[in-house]
Amino acid sequence: MKEDYGTLYEVEITFRDSKICKEKTEEIRESGLLVKEVKGNKVIVEWEVPENEGVHEVENALFYMLESGSLGSYRYKNIR
Q1: Torsion sign over Cα 59, 60, 61, 66
Q2: Residue 70's domain is classified under what CATH number?
Q3: Is residue 14 part of a domain?
Q4: DSSP structure class, residue 10
Q5: How far is CA 38 from the centre of its chain?
Q6: Is 1 part of a structural domain of the chain?
Q7: What's the pLDDT tens digit per position in 53-70?
């Protein structure tokens, strides 16, 4: 299986509720990620992965942000 390095991902995060969504969306913006869309409790983010890292960096960050899935879920796709 090929690992993707130095790519751009579109990440869709679905939060458990809109209050958590609002709080976490602000954190995402402050971290420097591009928030493309917010709709209800869903956020779409563009996430650039450094050349020397892989998509696991996105997965690890979201694991902690979503507190092991208790605050929501996510999916992503490679867009570059």
Answers
A1: positive
A2: 3.30.70.270
A3: yes
A4: E
A5: 12
A6: no
A7: 888 999 999 999 999 999
Most distant CA pair in the chain, distance: 38
| pLDDT at residue 4, as a whole number | 52
Which one, of 5, 7, 23, 2, lies nearest residue 78 by Cα? Answer: 7
From the CB of residue 15, how many other CB atoms can be counted at a distance below 10 Å? 22
Whose tokens are 């892989």? That residue is 54
Q: Answer yes or no: is 37 within a domain.
A: yes
The domain in which residue 70 lies consists of 8-78
pLDDT in tens, 66-80: 999 999 999 999 998
- The pTM (predicted TM-score) of the whole model is 0.88
Cα–Cα distance, 78 to 27 (Å, whole number)? 23
The total number of structural domains that make up the chain: 1
The verdict on residue 3 lying in a domain is no
